[in-house]
What does this fold into?
Amino acid sequence: MSNVDIKIHNPKIAIGNNSKPAASKNIDTKQYIPEPYREVATGMEEQFANFMIAEMEKSVGNLPTDTAGDYYATLMRSKRAEMMAKKESLGLQNVILDQIYPEAQRTKEAYDAYQKMVAMNNFSRKKIEIHDQPTQDIQMVRKTSAKELTHE
It folds into this structure.
């Protein structure tokens, strides 16, 4: 028999005790995801849940025919979808977050840099003030014909 070297290039697969990906599994990286990204993932899961519930209602064939019933059904559907998204019951948020904010970017340093950038943007917005106000009042006068217009 001959010796065979097997090289695995996937960084998510850990072989041996010295590999870093296995050590990073102990750290909860969800805490380093900025809030706007979480809101996007929650919103996308809510939209999917809303669509899924609407399609399920169509399959039952028990849809209201009047405007009030339709409004109530839509409101109930959106609230159910919102509750499902808040409880993360479908599991789509994790998949979406892995796509829009990958695991490699979820570090304390990246999160601190993001927080610093947000603080700088909020600070620069607060500095803008308007000090001058118009000194003249603008009066509008209605003219009934073009002959009454003068260049004053």
About this structure: The mean pLDDT is 79. The radius of gyration is 29 Å. Residues 49-115 form one domain. Helices lie at 20-24, 35-60, 67-86, 92-100, 108-126.
